């Protein structure tokens, strides 16, 4: 069942720089008068934002982490994403289920089969129309993270963790190549913005 709106997600390891480009796209589309819903995961509803706080700051075992992330996602889908897509909006979402496969799956080593089962239950077939994967070496991403900022539970993890997360994202892309567009994020902001514009235009979303 295809909904009238369009669902675009943005992914990448911490420090990949995706936020700047989501901001630019949101602003450009709002200026065109489009119905844009800008949101993020974990989060996007009052309940899901509370779950985000727990996931980012409290210690827990990998299954608890995966269940909380999917609980937040379920509420977000029911309250925000599905209604927006049903009325024909453009939904720009900073991270979605690919992040769970990359961080909880590849990064933490949690069973992918369980994540696939949760994905099926929670999403009931709904997938993004397009996913922009901001790919770059973890060392470059780490150097971009603000030194002054207090790292959350994920940002504090080591380079080997982010190598696994990066590989996890690329595996997801290999399994669903039509949905993904890989952005070479180890480039100037101008060049990255150009890649984003091209990817959006190629899908006919510009
Ligand atoms: P992020 O999106 O980078 O937000 P900010 O820019 O405010 O730091 O942070 C969210 C973190 O949550 C990020 O480290 C990845 C992690 N995460 C998961 O581990 N699993 C998930 O399913 C999602 C959506 C995010």
Overall shape: it is: globular
In CATH, the topology is named Rossmann fold
The second-level CATH architecture is: 3-Layer(aba) Sandwich
Residues in helix, %: 40-55%
CATH evolutionary superfamily: P-loop containing nucleotide triphosphate hydrolases
Instruction: Give the N-terminus to C-terminus distance in angstroms.
Output: 23 Å
Radius of gyration: 16 Å
What is the element string, with H for helices and E for strands? Answer: EHEHHEHHEHHEH
Structure description:
The protein is α/β, with parallel strands linked by helices and 206 residues long. The chain has one domain (6-202): P-loop containing nucleotide triphosphate hydrolases (Rossmann fold, 3-Layer(aba) Sandwich), CATH 3.40.50. It is 54% helix and 14% strand. The protein contains eight helices and five strands; from the N terminus they run E-H-E-H-H-E-H-H-E-H-H-E-H. It has helices at residues 18-31, 46-57, 62-86, 97-107, 112-123, 138-144, 159-175, 189-202; strands at 6-12, 36-40, 90-94, 130-135, 180-184. The chain has a five-stranded parallel sheet with strand order 2-3-1-4-5, sandwiched between helices. Helix 2 (46-57) runs antiparallel to helix 3 (62-86) and helix 4 (97-107) crosses helix 7 (159-175). The longest helix has 25 residues, at 62-86. The chain starts with 5 loop residues before the first strand and ends with a helix. Thymidine-5'-diphosphate (TYD) binds next to helix 4.
């Amino acid at each position: 069942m295809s909904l009238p709106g369009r669902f675009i997600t943005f992914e990448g390891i911490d420090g990949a720089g995706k936020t700047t480009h989501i901001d630019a796209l949101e602003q450009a589309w709002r200026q065109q008068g489009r119905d844009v819903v800008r949101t993020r995961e974990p989060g996007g509803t009052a309940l899901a934002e509370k779950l985000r706080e727990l996931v980012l700051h409290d210690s827990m075992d990998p299954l608890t982490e995966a269940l909380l992330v999917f609980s937040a996602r379920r509420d977000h889908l029911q309250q925000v994403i599905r209604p927006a897509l049903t009325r024909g909006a453009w939904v720009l979402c900073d991270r979605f289920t690919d992040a769970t496969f990359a961080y909880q799956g590849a990064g933490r080593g949690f069973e992918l089969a369980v994540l696939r089962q949760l994905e099926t239950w929670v999403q009931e077939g709904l997938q993004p129309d397009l996913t922009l994967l901001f790919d770059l070496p973890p060392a470059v991403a780490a150097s971009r993270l603000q030194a002054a900022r207090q790292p959350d539970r994920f940002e504090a993890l080591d380079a080997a963790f982010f190598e696994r997360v990066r590989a996890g994202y690329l595996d997801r892309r290999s399994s669903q190549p039509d949905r993904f567009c890989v952005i070479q994020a180890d480039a100037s902001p101008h060049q990255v913005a150009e890649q984003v514009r091209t990817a959006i235009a190629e899908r006919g979303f510009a």
